[in-house]
From TrEMBL, chain A:
Name the UniProt record assigns to this protein: Phospholipid-transporting ATPase
Organism: Leersia perrieri
Binding-site positions, ATP: 380-382, 458, 499, 523, 555, 635-637, 726, 732, 754-755
Ranges of residues in domain P-type ATPase N-terminal: 5-69
GO molecular function, one term: ATP hydrolysis activity
The protein's Enzyme Commission number: 7.6.2.1
Catalyzed reactions per annotation: ATP + H2O + phospholipidSide 1 = ADP + phosphate + phospholipidSide 2
PANTHER family in UniProt: PHOSPHOLIPID-TRANSPORTING ATPASE, PROBABLE PHOSPHOLIPID-TRANSPORTING ATPASE
Automatic annotation (TrEMBL), chain B:
InterPro entries: CDC50/LEM3_fam (IPR005045)
A cellular component term, taken from the record's GO annotations: plasma membrane
Membrane-protein topology: Multi-pass membrane protein
Database matches in Pfam families: CDC50
Subcellular location: Membrane
Provenance organism: Leersia perrieri
Source species, domain of life: Eukaryota
Residue intervals passing through the bilayer: 48-70, 306-328
Span list, region Disordered: 1-31
Presence of the UniProt keyword Iron-sulfur in the record: no
UniProt keyword list: Membrane, Transmembrane, Transmembrane helix
Protein name: ALA-interacting subunit
Family per record: Belongs to the CDC50/LEM3 family.
């Protein structure tokens, strides 16, 4: 469980790994088997492999095995090459890191070795600005106080400098001694927690006595950090190679699957079943026909006694004939378009943030379609909705309010006067503001003092204090120097009682060097500080102040202090040290000890910090809510602040229009009662035009999530808006999980480390690359610079991606089914024996070239202009509800392919009857007919045609002829001269024209009819776009998409639907649920892929069952 | 002192942290990357759709008429003889056709319904004959047919690849079952010569069937299929075989037998002396003799003409119906009020 690291001890052989970093997935030897194994884990690939293997049996194969092996190998090669390339790049960067030269101590002298040769226990020296090669325990620095600064950006994305100190036992060792140092470090086995190290160090004589000294994370230099502002540092390697904190936290995130992929998989499954059915029916029909008819046909010469397996020969032949029903090209096509969608996001100028110079970035290239199907957005507050640029605005010191009139306490004359007069309350307040933090002041070359702070609040407080003439000038190790009104005050910081999200407060113990008095300075959330007030203090003013500030949407912090008796401190200090060196449950023990000191505080006052809303947040939320997306705000902030922000950014409406329902309570009973009450109100008021939102805090949520999950799920389903305050990161993730379990598509957006878990949990994680570092942006699937880009990400990119993939995937099935139906029809005229009409080359090229390339240009298709979408965000419903890809639209495409197959086949066999019925010719006529129809279908289904599309569609048509002319000029090919022969026949062209006319006429007529007389909202907007240009008349946006249904379903108006009045009704009524859940219920409406049936009037809580 | 040593000792490799920053990370503008390529957005307006249908009708109807006229111009004589050529009192037709000792000669008389201009094509037509059967269509060896040195390349020819231990040339079911009825024509008590040259594709003669490949070991098996070939004539000149081996895709097909270069007048009667050798009785297939003239469309085939006329007519009908619908129930283009979420007032 533990490891003992003997410092610089050559004789002690440990078997820990060396410092070779390896991020590669494969080695040269295992690449092929491992990669193949991974690829074959996909069902589709297994299927294709099975088909390809069956084709090797020449008795049953209708075509040359190459027609499957070719594409299969091509597709595998593409994926494998991509993997190999990525892995090679990883290998190169690993190699660079591994071969970096570092200094270690060996046999008492310093030596230059490669980073990969560092062993656990070695002493490693690092210069300023060098990268730390492995996890080190600091034992010496150039600084006399034993501190050094590191930048941990590569580890957690935080850009501020962090202070690291050497353990107390090592203080004062000079370089010579460091070369000879011996000792043992007791530390836990490697883990991935970068915020925690519970270890001990004990140096061997002659250095210090056998004192055990605790080690924490602040005594370490972790791999991949950079040493800054410190000349040199040295440390003992404790974790190396892939066992470092960074190496352990490196994991392959689970690939996310979009709703669309899931739907495509389902449809593939359905097609597979259909295929099996066809095979069984035709196979047995073929066997019957063979026994009754074919045996009479002497020229086929069937043997009378044949081997047992003959019975399955015909079914297997049909299996192979029908195998093309599942298009082999769909995976490659989808991968291609998806990576283009991602590129479009990266390239988008309108999502580029000038202020911070950050473009949008899609880290996950596979899930763009999901953006268009988002139903719930769970958003963090601080830094996501707000700017996270904290400004000290108001304060209440000892009962006096400052900054109330001007809204800026720093310019409040009264406060300035109080400062000038050195009012004791104010001075105490300012002292806490200045000292109770972990800010590091850095003197810039110009003499100005810059503060590096981990928390924006602390930054705001220190800056405000310095504006009020209490300037933190220097913090050197444990000594802090403060200038106040020209006076220099020295403090020694004795202990820091750190902030944790459980404690919600932090304290420092300082020694006033002048008076020798010891003080405890605390700051924290009101509910964490006010209960600690000494008995008898009048706390009402502070509670009022907190309420008042919170209502203004300000962040409040309570400040308090207490003078400590020396004995009390010393006693406490011992137990604190003990707790700090505990190896087990250290955090809990420390918190326990801290609690012992933080009591009987004198509450000094309340500070109020403003965090402004980002530009465009209310508009973005408004638009996204119109488009039917539900918003939940999850914040660690207090309830009233959260509600205030929610009001400001349109998340909830104020009283007459909206209503807030609170779920609170301390005990389980209270919580349950309030939950039931809220639920009841929700159920009743769903018929009123009122916006309901519920508010729950972390405490109640804890109880609810652990015990009343079902009731809460129902509530979650009923409510469109929710505010959850005081929630912990894990609760955020739990809420996401809960919504996901109700089958909703969730998007989580956040900016800080506390949002990472929720971002990773959600279907789509969006990170804002903000001030709290890049941690969230790194974990996220998409990173954007500002919250307002979210609407473009969803409404433009998500929506287009969804539409395009919907078309592409269904079209892929359509074209494969088309050719397959022709084969099936032909089998009825060829004695159900499984003859292929088309030759191998045509079959292979059909899927890979002729039909794949034109449809790829669908990535440029735009059904509506971006502006129209932004003006009518309700249109997103079509994507959310999955209207463009569901079993019924798929049935439309299925029907179309059947119809087109009939057209092509019947016309071909009649036009090429009698003396013209030569096999090769007839097959080429049918193939040309199919290709021709494909070109027309793609043209007709595209909503906007750029020259690229024209080029691809009709260029591809030309390429078809060129390829076939080429093949026709090879004498040994089966179709030698065929294409030249056909092109010289007038009949051929006349037949083609007829096929196009008959094939496309009804499609066009039906499309036009639907378009004009039963238009979908998209069609209407398309027409509006055409007739008015961009629409300036802003339409009345009371969204009632439900009426779509009323057109088709008159009885609807009489059906009592509870949720009728709520604004987001459309989502509820013809919800995606119905289409998603009832896969089987697919009406067969041919030619109508763009519209789904509007029969469902499911109330929303259908998911709750 | 010591600090200095540490500072100066490690060479210039230590500045990995200062990554060079570009001036801006703003994406470069181009019409493609911003998805702003100029595009035409076709909208299905009534005007557009109706004119498309009218246009299609206008194109299709004349084509239909021309095709139909061409097809009607073709004069065709079809004579089914499989039943008629069996002696009337034969009960077992199969036994009859399989008995090699019985003479299979048969005489048919045809009347010319209309003037027929030379060249007149002579076809034989088989019904219910599955040349496209999976087992049949694959049973051939193209390499063997082309190349004399590949005579033993018969792996694809099963079950007709080897006879008496040696390879068959040409092997396979198709060659084995070559049609072997023969026709002779007498017109006005003069023999009509049937030109059997060039009835096959030129490309087949030149590239698919070798001029140095001679039939070998053919029809020597226990079962005799169809035609026997003269082992002294190379395959490239065995045109009946070449024609037969261009397999038909449909169970009813015609294959060219020869051409007659004599004009025939209306009412002329032709006597056909035929040898009824080929067995279609076992699977109740029909055999027909066809004499036909030809046009640009090929033989007689009303299908294209009729189909074109029907489609053209339907297009006109649709155009008319859409116009009517448009006049009766006009829809203003792009009226936002049709948007469902605009139609219903709030608070219902």
């Amino acid at each position: 469980m533990k490891r003992f690291v003997y410092i610089n001890d050559e004789s002690y052989q440990n078997d820990y790994c060396d410092n070779r970093i390896s991020n590669t997935k494969y080695t040269l030897l295992n690449f092929l088997p491992k990669n193949l194994w991974e690829q074959f884990r996909r069902f589709m690939n297994q299927y294709f492999l099975l088909i390809a293997c069956l084709q090797l049996w020449s008795l049953i194969t209708p075509v040359n095995p190459a027609s499957t092996w070719g594409p299969l190998i091509f597709i595998f090669a593409v994926s494998a090459t991509k993997e190999a390339w990525d892995d090679y790049n990883r290998y190169i960067s690993d190699k660079q890191a591994n071969e970096k030269e570092v200094w270690i101590v060996k046999n008492g002298t310093r030596k230059h070795i490669q980073a990969q040769d560092i062993r656990v226990g070695n002493i490693v020296w690092i210069r300023e600005n060098e990268e730390v090669p492995c996890d080190l325990v600091l034992i010496g620095t150039s600084d006399s106080q034993g501190i050094c600064h590191v930048e941990t950006a590569a580890l957690d994305g935080e850009i501020d400098l962090k202070t690291r100190v050497i353990p107390s036992t090592c203080v004062g060792l000079d370089c010579e001694q460091l070369h000879k140092i011996k000792g043992v470090i007791e530390c836990p086995n490697p883990d991935k927690d970068i915020r925690r190290l519970d270890a001990n160090i004990r140096l061997f004589p002659p250095f210090i006595d056998n004192d055990i000294c605790p080690l924490t994370i602040s005594n370490t230099l972790l791999q991949s950090c950079y040493l800054r502002n410190t000349e040199w540092a040295c440390g003992v390697a404790v974790y190396t190679g892939n066992e470092t904190k960074l190496g352990m936290s490196r994991g392959v995130p689970e690939p996310k699957l979009t709703a669309m992929d899931a739907m495509i998989d389902k449809l593939t499954g359905a097609i597979f079943l259909f295929q099996i059915a066809v095979v069984l029916v035709l196979g047995s029909a073929g066997n019957v026909w063979k026994d009754t008819e074919a045996r009479k046909q002497w020229y086929v010469k069937y043997d009378d006694d044949e081997p047992w397996y003959q019975i399955c020969v015909i079914p297997l032949r049909f299996e192979l004939l029908c195998s093309i029903m599942i298009p082999i090209s769909i995976k490659v096509s989808l991968d291609f378009v998806k990576s283009l969608y991602a590129k479009f996001i990266d390239w988008d100028e309108e999502m580029y943030d000038h202020e911070t110079d950050t473009p949008a970035h899609a880290a996950n290239t596979a899930i763009s379609e999901d953006l268009g199907q988002v139903e719930y957005i769970l958003t963090d507050k601080t830094g996501t909705l707000t700017e996270n640029k904290m400004i000290f605005r108001r304060c209440c010191i000892g009962g006096t309010f400052y900054g109330n009139e001007s809204g800026d306490a720093l310019r409040d004359v009264e406060l300035l006067n109080a400062v000038a007069n050195s009012s004791p309350h104010v001075i105490k307040f300012l002292t806490v503001m200045t000292l109770c933090n972990t800010v590091i002041p850095i003197k810039s070359s110009s003499g100005a003092i810059l503060y590096k702070a981990q928390s924006q609040d602390e930054d705001a407080l220190v800056n405000a204090a310095s504006n009020l003439h209490m300037v933190l000038v220097n913090k050197n190790g444990n000594n802090a120097e403060i200038h106040f009104n020209g006076r220099v005050v020295q403090y020694e910081i004795l202990d820091i009682l750190e902030f944790t999200s459980d404690r919600k407060r932090m304290s420092v113990v300082v020694l006033d060097c002048e008076s020798g008095k010891i003080f405890l300075l605390s700051k924290g959330a009101d509910e964490a500080i006010i209960p600690c007030a000494y008995s008898g203090q009048r706390i009402k003013t502070f509670v009022d102040a907190v309420d008042k500030y919170a209502q203004l949407g300000l962040r409040t912090l309570c400040l308090g202090w207490r003078e400590l008796e020396t004995e009390e401190y010393l006693e406490w200090s011992r137990s604190f040290k003990e707790a700090n060196s505990a190896l087990v449950d250290r955090e809990w023990k420390v918190a326990e000890v801290c609690q012992k000191l933080e009591h009987s505080l004198e509450i000094l006052g309340v500070s109020a910090i403003e965090d402004r809303l980002q530009v465009g947040v209310p508009e973005t939320i408004e638009i996204l809510r119109q488009s039917g997306i539900n918003f939940w705000m999850l914040t660690g902030d207090k309830q009233s602040t959260a509600i205030q922000i929610a009001l400001l950014c349109n998340l909830i409406s104020s009283e007459p229009k909206g209503q807030l329902l609170y779920i609170n309570g301390r005990t389980e009973d209270e919580v349950v009662r309030s939950l039931e009450r809220v639920l009841l109100t929700m159920r009743i008021t769903t018929s009123e035009p009122k916006e309901l939102a519920f508010v729950v805090d972390g405490c109640a949520l804890e109880i609810i999530l652990s015990r009343y999950n079902e009731a809460f799920t129902e509530l979650a389903v009923l409510s469109k808006t929710a505010i959850c305050c005081r929630v912990t990161p894990s609760q955020k993730a739990q809420l996401v999980k809960l919504l996901k379990s109700c089958d909703y598509r969730t998007l989580a957006i956040g900016d800080g480390g506390n949002d990472v878990r929720m971002i990773q949990q959600a279907d789509i994680g969006v990170g804002i690359s903000g001030r709290e570092g890049l941690q969230a942006a790194r974990a996220a699937d998409y990173s954007i610079g500002k919250f307002r880009f979210l609407k473009r990400l969803i409404l433009v990119h998500g929506r287009y991606s969804y539409n395009r993939t919907a078309f592409l995937s269904q079209y892929s099935f359509y074209k494969s089914l088309l050719i397959c139906f022709i084969q099936i029809l032909f089998s009825f005229l060829s004695g159900i024996a499984g003859t292929s009409l088309f030759n191998s080359v045509s079959l292979m090229a059909y899927n890979v070239f002729y039909t794949s390339i034109p449809v790829l240009t669908t990535v440029l298709d735009k059904d509506l202009s971006e502006k129209t979408v932004m003006q009518n965000p309700e249109i997103l419903l079509y994507c959310q509800a999955g209207r463009l890809l569901n079993p019924s639209t798929f049935a439309g495409w299925f029907g179309r392919s059947l119809y087109h197959a009939l057209v092509v086949f019947l016309i071909t066999i009649h036009a090429y009857a009698n003396e013209k019925s030569e096999m090769e010719e007839l097959s080429m006529v049918a193939l040309s007919g199919s290709i021709c129809l494909q070109a027309f279908v793609v043209t007709l289904e595209m909503n906007s045609l750029t020259f690229v599309q024209f080029l691809a569609i009709w260029g591809n048509f030309m390429a078809f002829y060129i390829i076939n002319f080429f093949i026709s000029s090879i004498p040994s090919a089966g179709m030698y001269t065929i294409m030249f022969r056909l092109c010289r026949q007038l009949t051929y062209w006349v037949t083609l024209l007829l096929i196009s006319g008959v094939g496309m006429g009804p499609v066009l007529a039906l499309k036009y009819f639907r378009y004009t007389y039963k238009p979908s909202a998209i069609n209407i907007l398309q027409k509006a776009e055409r007739s008015f240009g961009p629409m300036y008349t802003l339409v009345n946006l009371e969204s009632q998409l439900r009426s779509d249904m009323e057109n088709t379903n008159i009885s609807f108006s009489t059906t009592p639907v509870k949720n009728k009045a709520s604004v987001y009704e459309p989502l509820l009524s013809d919800s995606p649920i119905s289409s998603r859940r009832t896969l089987a219920a697919s009406s067969f409406d041919i030619f109508q892929p763009a519209q789904s049936r509007n029969t469902s009037s499911y109330p929303r809580n259908i998911k709750a069952n | 002192m010591n600090g200095q040593a540490a500072g100066s000792s490690s060479g210039g490799s230590g500045d990995g942290g200062a990554a060079p920053r570009r001036n801006t990370r703003k994406p470069k503008y181009s019409k493609f990357t911003q998805q702003e390529l100029p595009a035409c957005k076709p909208i299905l307006t009534p005007k557009w759709v109706i004119s498309v249908f009218v246009l299609v009708g206008v194109i299709f109807v004349p084509i239909g008429l021309v095709s139909l006229m061409a097809s009607r111009k073709v004069v065709e004589i079809v004579d089914r003889y499989d039943d008629a050529c069996v002696p009337p009192n034969t009960t077992d037709k199969l036994a009859y056709i399989q008995n090699p000792t019985i003479s299979k000669n048969c005489t048919r008389t045809l009347t010319v319904p209309k003037d027929m201009d030379a060249p007149i094509f002579v076809y034989y037509q088989l019904d219910n004959f599955y040349q496209n059967h999976r087992r049949y269509v694959k049973s051939r060896s193209d390499t063997q047919l082309r190349d004399a040195s590949k005579a033993n390349d018969t792996s694809t020819c099963d079950p007709e690849s080897v006879a008496n231990g040696t390879a068959i040339v040409p092997c396979g079911l198709i060659a084995w079952s070559t049609f072997n009825d023969t026709y002779g024509f007498v017109h006005n008590s003069k023999n009509l010569t049937v030109d059997k040259k060039d009835i096959s594709w030129k490309s087949d003669r030149e590239h698919k069937f070798g001029s140095d490949v001679f039939p070998k070991n053919f029809q020597k098996g226990p079962l005799i299929g169809g035609k026997t070939l003269d082992p002294n004539i190379p395959l490239s000149q065995q045109e009946d075989l070449i024609v037969w081996m261009r397999t038909a895709a449909l169970p009813t097909f015609r294959k060219l037998y020869g051409r007659i270069h004599t004009d025939l007048k209306k009412g002329d009667s032709i006597t056909v002396a035929l040898e009824n050798n080929y067995n279609t009785y076992s699977f109740s297939g029909k055999k027909k003799l066809v004499l036909s003239t030809s046009t640009w469309l090929g033989g007689k085939n009303d299908f294209l003409g009729l189909a074109y006329l029907t489609v053209g007519g339907l297009c006109f009908f649709l155009a008319f119906a859409f116009t009517l619908l448009y006049l009766i129930k006009p829809r203003k283009l792009g009226d936002n009020n049709y948007l469902s979420w605009n139609r219903n007032p709030a608070g219902r």
